[in-house]
Amino acid sequence: xxxxxxxxxxxxxxxxxxxxxxxxxxxxxxxxxxxxxxxxxxxxxxxxxxxxxxxxxxxxxxxxxxxxxxxxxxxxxxxxxxxxxxxxxxxxxxxxxxxxxxxxxxxxxxxxxxxxxxxxxxxxxxxxxxxxxxxxxxxxxxxxxxxxxxxxxxxxxxxxxxxxxxxxxxxxxxxxxxxxxxxxxxxxxxxxxxxxxxxxxxxxxxxxxxxxxxxxxxxxxxxxxxxxxxxxxxxxxxxxxxxxxxxxxxxxxxxxxxxxxxxxxxxxxxxxxxxxxxxxxxxxxxxxxx
Length: 290
What we know:
Blueprint (H helix, E strand, L loop, with lengths): L1 E2 L6 E7 L2 E6 L2 E6 L19 E5 L5 E5 L6 E5 L2 E5 L14 H13 L5 E5 L5 H8 L3 E6 L2 H13 L7 E5 L2 H11 L5 E4 L4 E3 L5 E3 H13 L8 E6 L6 H16 L2 E10 L6 E11 L5
Parallel strand pairs: 1-16, 4-5, 9-10, 9-12, 10-11, 12-15
Antiparallel strand pairs: 2-3, 3-4, 5-6, 7-8, 13-14, 15-17, 16-17
Helix pairs in contact: 1-2, 5-6
């Protein structure tokens, strides 16, 4: 498993009964997590005195209960700053487990010794975009949600990266890739974090089981003659590491050589020493991983 274990301002303090107790800077949150099917005694003080608690509804979705939480606050990872706020569907605007992947591709970019162009699809609030830009890459950031792209630009500003070579685009990812192919544009690195289900700005339907293989195939045509890496993240139950590995091996490794790896990503749990699984990632590199 690839662990995001270098955080100083974030931690999973404890997990029990379908929920996780987290520290986001100075803010303590309780949020649901479907992976936490075990029950342990809740001895950590934060369980009784969180700043906010997201309660899942038996009818689907849920709602926040606020005790003492600011409307927004910042946390840091290395030189990056992320502006957080309680968001619908239990989210805060950041997936901290992805720091394991940020570290991986940032190392590749820094050691490449050449110009690296990165395409980040389904780019959300820009964690991967900022990590790639801070490592020296130029980035095209694409997400169908205007609000998410605005949030990502705000994160770039508070990270001191407002002048970094990033193009911020509100667009349907599949249609954008198709246009890039027609334009002949190429990239040394591609990152994608596709949702299980979604809609584009004009009502386009995205269903990962139906669309992911074709999207990877299309994106393989955007890789340059000297590509560096390809990263796929999945929070969809059916897309296990082996499935990601098979797709990348068939569509990318067969064409470019290199190496494919796939594994779960996770976060350490402070109180128990357990690791909380947080989805899966598939990685392709032109050479050995750093």
